[in-house]
Specification:
The chain is α/β, with parallel strands linked by helices. The chain folds into two domains: about 190 residues, Nucleotidyltransferase, domain 5; about 55 residues, no CATH class. It has eleven helices and nine strands. Helix 6 crosses helix 7, helix 9 packs across helix 10 and helix 9 packs across helix 11.
Length: about 270
């Protein structure tokens, strides 16, 4: 199947030192770019020296050890190459909205590069799978592609499998209605359309992956943590600038900080 692309899209996967998107680091990243003009896909994959220890739990999953990374480049050394490879493309992956995207944003932020995703469509293939057929990537690969994923948790193998699964999902579900858990019919939510898939795979009730800012039904962003829980973010920023600076200084995700900065700019324009 040929994807209906209006912009290039990059599928990617990261392996990391652990599961904390703020404290942990990338040890391997793999990217596959699909071009809107139909050119053959481009690939980029590399190990990354994280500069911090790898947790035993993480090593048990991906098998990458400190010895493997001893002479590898740091993210700072790779940042511009990764930035240029992605360009203005949309992003896709497997569990990418909750993990890979915010992890990549953190790595860029540490080297002084603000990776803005607000103008990109984000496709989380896991969200399609979990909504339609709750399973793992290995089972998804078997279901949609009829193959066995033998080298799971190698970043390049995982991202290539994710591309195949995505194509298989479109072939399987395009044009089919979905019945949600309340018995309501959702007319054919899966389309060969990146905007529609962005809306289907993202939780639009929250602005950030760590779910610190929730969106009310009327579209108003409100804090979902701390002493201002439930209060409109712009109202809080207007009356308590110290809270704004506190967020920027504390250990919150760079994605959250980007959103708060943008909302503060909107407050100051008034």
């Amino acid at each position: 199947m040929t994807l209906n692309l209006t912009r290039n899209i990059v599928f990617f996967d990261v392996e990391t030192t652990g599961l904390n998107v703020v404290r942990d680091r990338i040890v391997q990243i793999a990217l596959v770019k699909l071009f809107k003009n139909g050119d053959p896909p481009a690939e980029f994959s590399t190990l990354v020296n994280p500069g911090i220890p790898i947790s035993e739990e993480a090593m048990a999953v991906h098998g990458i050890t400190p010895k493997d990374l001893a002479n590898k480049p740091t993210f700072q050394q790779l940042a511009q190459k990764i930035w240029d490879f992605i360009g203005d493309a949309d992003l896709a992956g497997y569990n990418s909205n909750r993990f890979d995207v915010p992890m990549l944003m953190e790595e860029f932020a540490r080297v002084g590069m603000e990776f803005d995703v607000s103008k990109r469509r984000l496709i989380d293939v896991q969200r399609i799978f979990y909504k339609m057929e709750p399973r793992t990537l290995k089972a998804a690969y078997r279901l949609y592609c009829g193959k066995e994923l033998t080298d799971a948790h190698d970043a390049l193998a995982d991202v290539k499998a994710t591309v195949e699964v995505f194509h298989g999902q479109l072939t399987t579900y395009e044009g089919k209605d979905l019945i949600d858990e309340d018995g309501n019919v959702i007319p054919a939510p899966i389309k060969n359309d990146i905007q529609a898939l962005h809306e289907f795979t993202n939780d639009l009730n929250f602005l950030d992956a760590t779910q610190k800012i929730r969106v009310q039904p009327d579209g108003t962003p409100v804090f979902n943590f701390g002493k201002y829980t439930g209060q409109p973010v712009k109202d809080v920023l207007a009356k308590d600038k110290n809270y704004y600076f506190w967020i920027l200084e504390k250990e919150f995700s760079s994605q959250l900080k980007q959103i708060v900065k943008q909302l503060m700019r909107e407050v100051e324009k008034k």
